[in-house]
Amino acid sequence: MDAALHLSLVRGSGPLHTAIAQQLNDAISAGTLRPGMRLPPERELAVTLGVSRMTVRQALGELERDGRVRRVVGRSGGTFVREPDGGPGRAGGAGIAAELRRQGGATSVEPISADIEPAGKRVAAALELGRSDRVVVITRLRLASGKPLAVERSSLPARLFPDIEDMDLAISLLDVMAAFGVRPVRSVERLELTEARPADVRALGVRREAPLLLVERVRYAADGTPVEFARDRFRPDRTRVVLESTEVAE
User: N or C: which end of the chain has fewer CB within 10 A?
Assistant: First the structure.
């Protein structure tokens, strides 16, 4: 069933795509957009809101990253509201990093650098590459109301993403990957405590060796090929981990 929406863009101080994503997210939370509903096409939303299709695509990318919608390709495809996962942090949701961003109130992302370099031992092992194989290393700063929340560092096989460093990296990396025909379907994440490095001190405004939450992630394509190795470092004083579970007998 397609959703009938009555939207009017409320322009604030932040990016337009963030404002649109927030409106759609509010509609999902309020039940105006129910699980299984298909959103209007990007072109229709763009005309309704008076913005470009790219802005709408960025907004939908944010919602997809946060596990609020899913995109289906093909004749009967589109953007659909996802079934609820049963609460914050439940297995099968959008992932640890997405949950930390959501609970930390992330509002935007700023690209720091995009460099091509040899994979090295650790990245090569995660991406199943040779150590001398080239990877694109994308470093970005995640902000919450203008304040640093996390430094995100993703390594991608360069052969799969030629000239990706020339693209707009202030949008969802899933959207960027999709532009190259790569759509991750599974990820494995690990959460641990780490210490701030000099680069983290500058980016996050913390003292050296301050405790940070490290989320290490590998994303996989449908054929099992690893397509991203990421290490995201969060300020623990600006986010939290809330888990909901069902009590069972031990």
Answer: C
For residue 99, the SS3 value is: helix
Q: What is the CATH number of the domain that holds 228?
A: 3.40.1410.10
The domain containing residue 38 runs over which residues? Answer: 16-81
pTM, entire model: 0.64
Q: Report the relative pairing of strands 134-144 and 108-118 from DSSP bridges.
A: antiparallel
189-194-196 Cα angle (round to 5) = 125
How far apart CA 69 and CA 61 sit, in angstroms, is 9
How many structural domains is the chain composed of? 2
Residue 248, domain member (yes or no): no
Residue 226 has which token pair?
């690893």
Q: Do 101 and 219 lie in a common domain?
A: yes
Instruction: Tell whether the torsion through CA atoms of 114, 19, 63 and 105 is positive or negative.
Output: positive
| Cα separation values, 32 from 36, 46, 227, Å | 12, 20, 35
At what angle are helices 16-30 and 53-65 packed, to 10 degrees? 50
Averaged pLDDT for residues 73-88: 62
First to last CA, the chain: 42
Higher pLDDT, 144 or 9: 144
